[in-house]
């Protein structure tokens, strides 16, 4: 792990632990989850937002004012908005993506859930996602929340990552395996 990522993760973990404990004490875990969904989508979709939280060009005051206005506009809870503003005053907004991941992990652990990263060649229907979650839940022994993504390069099949385990049933992987086998023979 590179040093900047390690530093960001450490910072994010400390903020996440504090925010999670406050949310749990205030019985506002559901609001926190909603805030995380909103933040995740804005981080993924807005280059301007990513620039705001990572660029050293913006002063502390500018970052804090901007993140406060954005928090209000997005309808984030007071806890999340205040946390983001505190991170702005401390020049720690660069750790927001890691904060989101750390908070999701704490919430999942509290609920007894595990997250499965699933990559498919095409979008799964709701019924297919539910069936997959049920199969994974039986295998893992916990409720499974699916984090779905689509990669058409897989051609078909799925790549499923649950914790440290990975199952690759994609046609691309099978073709690569067949190609390697043919190289070994010839």
Q: CATH superfamily of the largest domain, called what?
A: N-terminal domain of the delta subunit of the F1F0-ATP synthase
CATH second-level architecture of the largest domain? Orthogonal Bundle
What's the helix-strand series? HHHHHHEHEEEH
Helical residue percent band: 55-70%
Shape category? globular
Query: How many E strands?
Result: 4
State the helix count.
8
Strand content: 5-15%
Number of domains: 2
- Mean pLDDT, to the nearest integer, reads 90
Output the radius of gyration: 20 Å
Largest sheet: 4 strands, mixed
* CATH uppermost class of the largest domain: Mainly Alpha
Give, in spatial order, the strands making up the sheet with the most strands: 2-1-3-4
Structural class: alpha+beta
Distance between the termini: 38 Å
What is the CATH T-level topology of the largest domain? Peroxidase, domain 1
Low-pLDDT residue intervals, each spanning 5 or more residues: none
Brief summary of the model shown:
It is built from eight helices and four strands, in the order ααααααβαβββα. The protein is of the alpha+beta class.
């Amino acid at each position: 792990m590179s040093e900047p990522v390690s530093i960001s993760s450490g910072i994010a973990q400390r903020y996440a632990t504090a925010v999670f404990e406050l949310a749990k004490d205030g019985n506002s875990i559901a609001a926190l989850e909603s805030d995380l969904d909103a933040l995740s989508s804005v981080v993924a979709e807005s280059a301007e937002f990513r620039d705001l939280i990572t660029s050293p060009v913006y002063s502390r005051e500018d970052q804090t004012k901007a993140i406060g206005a954005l928090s209000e506009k997005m309808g984030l809870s007071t806890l999340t908005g205040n946390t983001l503003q505190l991170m702005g005053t401390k020049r720690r907004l660069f750790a927001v993506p890691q904060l989101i991941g750390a908070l999701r992990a704490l919430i999942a652990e509290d609920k007894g859930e595990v997250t499965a990263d699933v990559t498919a060649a095409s979008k799964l229907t709701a019924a297919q996602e539910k069936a997959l979650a049920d199969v994974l839940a039986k295998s893992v022994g916990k409720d499974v929340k699916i984090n779905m993504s689509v990669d058409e390069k897989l051609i078909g099949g799925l790549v499923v990552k649950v914790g440290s385990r990975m199952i690759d049933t994609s046609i691309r992987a099978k073709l690569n395996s067949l190609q390697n086998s043919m190289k070994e023979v010839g």
